[in-house]
Amino acid sequence: MKRFILAFIGAYIFMFLWGWLLNGVLLKDVYAETPNLWRSQSEMMSLFHWIIIGQALIVFSFVMIYASGFAGGGVVAGIRLGILLEIAAIGMRLAIYAAEPFPGKLIFYGSVSGLIEMIIVGAIVGAIYKPVRTS
Amino acid sequence: MNWKKFFIAFIAAFVFLFVFGFIWYGNLMHGAHQEVTALFRPEAEFKEHFPWLILGEIVMAFFLTMLCARFVPAGGVGSGAMLGLLVALVYTGVHVIDFAVMPLTTKILFGWIVGAIIEYSVAGAIIGAIYKPGSRMTT
Q1: Which residues of B fall within a CB distance of 8 Å from A39?
Q2: Total domain count, chain A
Q3: Within 13 A of A76's CA, how many CA atoms are on the CB side?
Q4: For labeling, which of A21, A63, A98, B86 is most exposed (least CB within 10 Å)?
Q5: pLDDT on residue A68
Q6: What is the mean pLDDT of residues B15-25?
Q7: What is the reported pLDDT for A133?
Q8: Domain-by-domain residue ranges, chain B?
Q9: Hey, what's the torsion of the CAs at A20, A25, A29, A34, to 10 degrees?
Q10: In chain A, positions 108-127, which contact chain B (CB-CB < 8 Å)?
């Protein structure tokens, strides 16, 4: 349980910082090209707790999956899980692209950055979480 | 890996994801989506982009099947559904973040969350029911 919590906190801190760097800094100009698709800055700030909850949910579920199926596999197993989950998410992103008017480059950047993000999250979780020895 | 069972499970998952998506997101949630027309493509534009939806569903079904085959190598409906539920929770987190940054209504957020939970849990159960590890001859 202690390792589970540590893995959750480690991965969460990374995801929070990565999300800020990517969406708040690097892709800021790309988002600005489609203002109709986004809430205003002040509105986003008033709903910021939803971002915290959403990221926590992603990381918690990730660690849960890892802990119940990939435990003991270490960094490589964590990275493998991150890749599988993110490629499935890229599929979801493509389906969303068909229905919502996102620019193609935003889908591309989101997919590449999502892959990097989940690989690192997987590596962090795999490095920290260790199963309890039963023997 | 039992590739024959994997392929059958993948096809079944794809068919389910496609049919469920059509019913849930395309029909039952159509009214809710119409409340924020700026966030969705017009009908004609959506039809033009339809191949992306098919490709997306194929990718999702394939990697969900891959995940189940690795995570639940012994197969089984219950284990598959549990994995599907956990995967749904990952994507639910994404929807919650979307709600914070996009002008979605709470009705849409709720619909997407419930939809994801049903969609991936059932898809996981289908894959778990079909996929069984092969003998040495089939790996």
Answers
A1: 100-103
A2: 1
A3: 2
A4: A21
A5: 83
A6: 96
A7: 62
A8: 3-130
A9: 10
A10: none
